[in-house]
Amino acid sequence: MMRIFSFDESYLNSSSSDISSRASSQSTTTINDYRNQSSGTQASESESAGIFEDHPGLNPNDERIIELQCEIREKLQELMINRSEDAVLAAAEGLHAESDNVPFMQSILDDLNRNGVQGEAYREALDLAQLVPSPLDQFSILPLIPMKMGNLSFSFTNPSLFMLLTLSLFLLLLSFVTKKGGGKSVPNAWQSLVELLYDFVLNPVNEQIGGLSGKVKQKFFPCILVTFTFLLFCNLQGMIPYSFTVTSHFLITLGLSFSLFIGITIVGFQKNGLHFLSFLLPAGVPLPLAPFLVLLELISYCFRALSLGIRLFANMMAGHSLVKILSGFAWTMLCMNDLFYFIGDLGPLFIVLALTGLELGVAILQAHVFTILICIYLNDAINLH
Questions:
Q1: Helix (H, G, I), strand (E, B) or coil at 153
Q2: Could you count the other beta carbons within 10 Å of the beta carbon of residue 222?
Q3: Secondary structure of residue 81 in the 3-state scheme
Q4: Which residue intervals are annotated with compositional bias (Low complexity) in the record (predicted)?
Q5: How far apart are CA 294 and CA 283, in angstroms?
Q6: What is the pTM of this model?
Q7: Using alpha carbons only, how large is the chain's radius of gyration in Å?
């Protein structure tokens, strides 16, 4: 189906014969060819004119058209993280249709930059390239406030927005509890919720970290409580429709796990000094096996931080992807306008509801498991063997 945009006046005013003649005269030259040709600044004007002989819709003297085509393709490649190069190229060429209307192409690029996978241009590109929307599109990172310094990007993205929103919700919850100097003797609903979270985290800290007095354990409790609350709010917030699951990205969970693990290692050296290295060699090991066991224990110790981040990321991403797939299947059956499919849609719909409830439980469980493992690793670093 040919795509029509209201702001492409030249396309609307052209006749069907002009459109068909233009389509038949186009060759198989790709955007990469245009980019390579535009980068050759030493080429003469007569040589560059030959590039556009088979492309009457392009102006050989307007480099902006080539730049926009390249930028559209690069942006689609950034959004279609799980697509092949050929699929991205087909989507880009179908989207801009080698148009010579600069405002039209600029509007496409603006829509891709502003709305990303939720925009009309992205959906149009998928339709023109005959691509099925991926359930992983919900995890795409979109720059809301682009900021670049050389090759480095410091853009304010949707994960940044939702992490700030999570922090704001947590501080707002505490403000309800601590306003007017503290809690009430008869707790209200908000105070009861905070006290429940406090006791829920305090019990694992007391159970898993042994050999220390209660006052010493309180040094580690605030960090563990904030970690648990942050993960809990991020996981639950991701269950809200049209929101973003921060913990579904590996870099975020890996950064959190490695930063905590580095802190645990520093605590171990502060508590035990160089004797902390004896953690890598269990007691009673034969001397010939010591080098191998030290290497294995060191690898195992480093992989704790890696597995801590992977576990949280994989559970959240897999659960949300499964809910997305089954929700799309249920919605497709519901839109078939057939009584048989409408009745059959009850099965997938109930499965989606059940999975949603399961994901709520997984969101709470993964935050708790992350906290428990932090307590166990902290106990190993303090008490060694």
A1: strand
A2: 10
A3: coil
A4: 13-27
A5: 12
A6: 0.65
A7: 28
